[in-house]
Amino acid sequence: MRTIIMGEGGMGRPSSETTAPPLGRLYDVGERRLMLHRSGSGGPSVVFLPGAGLVGLDFLNVQEGAAAFATSVLYDRGGTGWSTSAPLPRGAADVAVELRDLLRTAAVPGPFLLAGHSLGAFYARRYAQLFPDEVAALLLLDPGHEDILDHMPAQAAELAERMRPDPAGMPELTDEQRRAAREAYTRLYAEWPAPVREALIGHHLASWRTSLRETENFETEVYGELREGGPLPDVPLIVLTAGGVNPYWAKFMPEEVMREAHDGVRALHAAIARSVPRGEQRVVEGASHQYLHVERAEEVLRAIRDLTAAA
Questions:
Q1: Residue 245: its H or E element
Q2: What is the pLDDT of residues 239-287, one digit of tens each?
Q3: Is 35 exposed, middle or buried (0-12, 13-18, 19+ CB in 10 A)?
Q4: Omega of the bond prior to 44 within 30 degrees of 0, cis?
Q5: Strand 72-75 relative to strand 32-39, pairing
Q6: Which residue, 64, 88, 71, is CA-closest to 221?
Q7: Which of 41, 52, 92, 216 has the fewest CB atoms within 10 Å, measured from its CB?
Q8: Which residues contact 100 (CB under 8 A, 6 or more apart)?
Q9: Please, which residues bridge with residue 47 across strands?
Q10: Which residues pair with 25 in a beta bridge?
Q11: Cα gap 56→26, rounded to integer Å
């Protein structure tokens, strides 16, 4: 069995300290302190679950957009962002239970519209399996899935496995790489408030291994959890598929193989949508996997509005 890496490329480190976040606050949840930022009112409450390598503040643009018509929440799971450390990788149930405890501690009213991106979609689905009565709707942003290999050409899987980096053996970023990354992040987060933008960029540059560590247990744990966790509840569900070229795959896959891989992802996402009575797939042409929510925020917010109305 091989893991297909969709290309999470964030540079966030698992925090070992509890420094104050530039936005939101820290809540005591069990043995950890977890960052949560909340605004808006009304229901269902929208909760954003970041992909690997990303943190809550990466979703500030769509979180603020959703706050115009609903309670809107972003957060950092343990081991990421401004939350305290946690051993990585983690089981999906562990992350889902932690999120539930955080939402209760922060008195965020349910039920919830869970918006999970990539790895975060695993956790959103696991939450829905464990606590179906607390979920009003699901939005999956270019999600990963345990059946991805059934939809991928064999050559793509082999290339992805061969090119998968080892976080322990990777050197630190060079000064040139750091400058290039800072410039790219500055363009990406140009519309973020300056204090948040600078803190977020600094955080991402501090450690870029988190995304690799978080995905190390896909085959050994997470895939099995989702397969054996039972069906999703009968709630409105929208899958947004990034229709642009995956820049990570483009580094090592021949064009024809990459095209077949993208076709496989679209077919997989269509199957996810068909798995529930009120499921729908929407392909967002030109959007990338990692930053669909930044590049096409209006499509994400339209989906959230539609799900809110349906729920």
A1: none
A2: 999 998 877 778 778 888 888 888 999 999 999 999 999 999 999 999 9
A3: buried
A4: yes
A5: antiparallel
A6: 88
A7: 41
A8: 127, 130, 131, 134
A9: 73, 114
A10: 36
A11: 13
